[in-house]
Amino acid sequence: MTWLLTCDAHRKALAEIEQTKSDRASAIVATSVIERDLVKAIAARMVDDERETSMLFKHSGPLGPFEAKVHLAYLMGLIDGSLRDDLTCVADIRNRFAHQVEPLHFNSHTIHALCDTFTIVDAPTYPEIPDPTLPIEYRSPARLPADATPRARFIQTTKLFLIALWRINHEKSAGTFADGAWSPAP
Q1: Could you tell me how many helices (H) and strands (E) the chain has, helices first?
Q2: CA separation (Å) from 82 to 120, 121, 136?
Q3: Helix 23-43 with 66-75: angle, nearest 10 deg
Q4: Which of 37, 109, 123, 160 could form a disulfide with 180 if both were Cys (CB 3.0 to 4.6 A apart)?
Q5: Taking residues 125-130, what's their average pLDDT?
Q6: First and final CA of the chain: distance in angstroms?
Q7: 35-44, 122-131, 163-172 — most confident range
Q8: CATH fold for domain 8-184
């Protein structure tokens, strides 16, 4: 499945993953890209006050940690509980790669176990973007094989979250993404 890139910054960041094949870079960079789109989704539903918003989302602010943003998105009804749990797991994996000096990889016992808990990659349906102008590999992701590696499960999870966040950020009305489907608000 091809990465859904919504801006030039995404393109440059994800090129690093493709070029280096580094597990550490993959975990940190892919999560940062998700976090950027998650902030966009949350901020779009807040009062339009750039100063206050930037203070909330700065690293030392109350919504600085990725996990805090995940829980807020859940409480705002943007994502369901299973997506919250998957994103919390993504945050845990990113933190382990970011804060551990010793060599770490997706096949490490703890990281492998965390990647096995992702539910979005095992969902009966994957999120799809209803934009016929996009190539099919962007709109309708291919399924992972049952024996996919932990790295493949992590990468696929992050790609699926980018699609889910694209839906949240591009729908005209408010709505939620749950169980692999977008539901516009009534």
Answers
A1: 8, 2
A2: 8, 11, 26
A3: 40
A4: 123
A5: 68
A6: 32
A7: 35-44
A8: Four Helix Bundle (Hemerythrin (Met), subunit A) (1.20.120)
Nearest to 168 by CA among 22, 69, 59, 99: 69
Give the three-class secondary structure for 56. Answer: helix
For residue 69 the two structure tokens come to 């943003």
Report percent pLDDT > 90 for the chain: 31
In this predicted structure, what is the pLDDT of residue 173?
A: 45
| Residue 167: count of CB within 10 angstroms of its CB | 21
Query: CB within 8 A of 107, min separation 6: which ones?
Result: 149, 150, 151
| pTM over cut 0.90 | no
Mean pLDDT of the chain: 81
70 φ, ψ to 5°?
Answer: -60, -50
Comparing 147 with 138, the larger pLDDT belongs to: 147
For the beta carbon of residue 174, count every other beta carbon within 10 angstroms: 14
User: Over 60: is that where the pLDDT of 73 sits?
Assistant: yes
With H, G, I as helix, E, B as strand and everything else as coil, classify residue 94.
Answer: helix
Taking residue 176's Cβ as centre, other Cβ atoms within 10 Å add up to 22
| 175-178 and 181-184 strand pairing | antiparallel
Q: What is the 3-state secondary structure (H, E, C) of 115-177?
A: HCCCCHHHCCCCCCCCCCCCCHHHHCCCCCCCCCCHHHHHHHHHHHHHHHHHHHHHCCCCEEE
